[in-house]
Amino acid sequence: DGGITQSPKYLFRKEGQNVTLSCEQNLNHDAMYWYRQDPGQGLRLIYYSQIVNDFQKGDIAEGYSVSREKKESFPLTVTSAQKNPTAFYLCASRSGQGRDGELFFGEGSRLTVL
Amino acid sequence: AQKVTQAQTEISVVEKEDVTLDCVYETRDTTYYLFWYKQPPSGELVFLIRRNSFDEQNEISGRYSWNFQKSTSSFNFTITASQVVDSAVYFCALSEAGNYGQNFVFGPGTRLSVLP
């Protein structure tokens, strides 16, 4: 079945450590996105990528980094510079060449900093 | 700038009641798209519907229906005969066709609790 796979589902990290969240899609979508969701809050855009080897900062990119070396993959690294990284992270891809299609989401990764 | 407002933070209903979730949007574009997503407790966002700005026909899908009114910039979502499985957070979203990447804006969400 086509879809988006995020891993790990749960992740614990000590302060000062970098962690990488994986996002893989087999929907053949060009556009991919990372969102952050805090308890009781909406979704905030971290980074997005319209095409391989290109990505753009979203509204809250500080303390995060991404890469887009393959169409199928868009990993997110939460660096030690992110002051409050505990959150639920959602990866998405978009149909319609990133213009007008809907977003398809993965199941999310819940990061907790100890 | 584009914006989506969902004024109802939380709604509680008893099973079999009808419930309407409100969504009001702001955009300067004449071509745009509206969406509704459901987020159950598991966390994954599930796509429910997509509507473009040129199509004001109301949509019905089983117990779900959507009322799109450009005159009031609203795209409301009604669940008829609600069920416990409808309990979730529902997000309304707006996308402007002419802008790439950051053009997908979500509302803050409405948490719906359907009590047995």
Summarize the entry for a quick read.
With 114 residues, chain A is mainly β. Chain A has no helices and 11 strands.
Describe the structure.
The complex is a heterodimer of chains A (114) and B (116). By secondary structure, chain A is an all-beta fold. Chain A is built from no helices and 11 strands. Chain A has strands spanning 4-7, 10-13, 19-25, 31-37, 43-51, 54-57, 64-66, 76-78, 87-94, 103-105, 109-113. In chain A, a hairpin with a 2-residue loop joins β5 (43-51) and β6. Chain A is globular and about 40 Å long. The mean pLDDT of chain A is 91. Chain B has 116 residues and is mainly beta. Chain B is built from no helices and 12 strands. In chain B, the strands form 3 sheets. In chain B, strands 2, 5, 6, 10, 11 and 12 form a 6-stranded mixed beta sheet that branches. Chain B has a 4-stranded antiparallel beta sheet with strand order 3-9-8-7, with no helix packed on it. In chain B, strands 1-4 form a two-stranded antiparallel sheet. The N and C termini of chain B lie far apart (41 Å). The model of chain B has no long low-confidence stretch (mean pLDDT 91).
Helices and strands, with pairings:
The complex is a heterodimer of chains A (114) and B (116).
Chain A: E1 4-7, E2 10-13, E3 19-25, E4 31-37, E5 43-51, E6 54-57, E7 64-66, E8 76-78, E9 87-94, E10 103-105, E11 109-113
Parallel strand pairs in A: 2-11
Antiparallel strand pairs in A: 1-3, 3-8, 4-5, 4-9, 5-6, 7-8, 9-10, 9-11
Chain B: E1 3-5, E2 10-14, E3 19-21, E4 24-26, E5 32-39, E6 46-52, E7 59-61, E8 64-69, E9 74-79, E10 88-96, E11 104-106, E12 110-115
Parallel strand pairs in B: 2-12
Antiparallel strand pairs in B: 1-4, 3-9, 5-6, 5-10, 7-8, 8-9, 10-11, 10-12
Helical fraction of chain B: under 10%
Distance N terminus to C terminus of chain B?
41 Å
Content-based structural category of chain B: mainly beta
Largest sheet of chain B: 6 strands, mixed
Unreliable stretches of chain B: none
On the 0-100 scale, what is the average pLDDT of chain A? 91
